[in-house]
Amino acid sequence: MTPAAASALTRDEAFARIRLLRSPRVGPVSYAQLLARFGTGEAALAALPDLAGRHGRPYAPAPVAAIEAELSAVRRAGARYLFHDSPDYPALLRAAEGAPPILIARGEGALVHRPAVAIVGARNASAAAVRLARDFGLALAGAGQAVVSGLARGIDGAVHQGALAGTAPGGGGTIAVIACGIDVTYPPEHAALQDEVAARGLLLTEHPPGTEPFARHFPARNRIIAGIAAGTVVVEATPNSGSLITARLAGDLGREVMAIPGSPLDSRSHGCNQLIRDGAVLVQRPEDVLELLSTFDGAPRAPLRETAGPFMLAETADRPADIAGLLTTAPVAIDELVRQSGESAAAVQLALLELELAGTLVRHAGGRVSRAG
């Protein structure tokens, strides 16, 4: 099996954690709670059928053969796993709500220890914006930054090309976060660029090998881009673009949000202009970005919601709270369930975990939950 990237995990524990995360209805929050409650992936796996079975639903973890096939595919791709408690896991991402517990990586692992800035923008970008994105990537990588983007057409591709040109030994470079398996190329015309990023930069994904880039994967990819970086720069974007999702996620995390202004006559600039109107910092040169990020110390610029990062859970409960009657198909904050039930937060979280594993609970952004429809 591919070693767990410089962590002290045993082979069996690493296998168990991968199998745990690939099991039905186990997401980042439930994965973290299971590890906090049972201590190891092996113990958590053993407990899954009983936890889900308390609500009358049979449960089977991910098949062993499927995980063995995944490990072989990761090895063939020349990739490796990064676990959330590994020193090679991006530190800022580890603290972000909803961060993936396990990443698959291919390339220069030292880049995760560099200061990072994300640059995103439109797929159908103007020629001027593409050149600007390339110049920003070149300058920021040359200044020692790990320049993060999503390897998409347009701005993303130009950012990676510029950052690769600015890569120097021991300095900055580029990190591409993809919405598919580590062995899948998307978009097809970026095959050579993806290979070059993997050879000279770092390629990251949360998906198993062979996963195709479905539409639902792109917002999830955007949360990783925002979570890795101290700040996000939007070069050009329409008001409803995925780039604005990335920027807003960065803002939710208390990271810097920056935008390059554009002509009001071009709809591709409307998203950036809107961000600036809403409080994003106007930047026009790479030096503006470096100056803004120079005082970032890893702490959020603004208070986050009252939600701990997914890997910062400590309390456990001996029994689940009785909260089933408080849930409807309308999302409600977990804090509200704690208040209305009069139970401890740990008991409420255990009840939610059991309901989620049984398939009767849905988790939503912002620490909200609902009964499954």
TrEMBL record:
Record-annotated DprA winged helix domain positions: 314-367
What SUPFAM superfamilies does the record point to? MCP/YpsA-like (SSF102405)
Q: Offer one example of a GO biological process linked to this entry.
A: DNA-mediated transformation
Could you tell me which Pfam families the record lists for this protein? DNA_processg_A, DprA_N, WHD_DprA
Q: Which Gene3D superfamilies match?
A: 3.40.50.450, Winged helix-like DNA-binding domain superfamily/Winged helix DNA-binding domain
- The Smf/DprA SLOG domain is annotated at 81-293
InterPro entries listed in its UniProt record = DprA, DprA_WH, DrpA_SLOG, WH-like_DNA-bd_sf
Q: Which family does it belong to?
A: Belongs to the DprA/Smf family.
UniProt-recorded name of the protein: DNA-protecting protein DprA
Please give the organism.
Answer: Novosphingobium piscinae
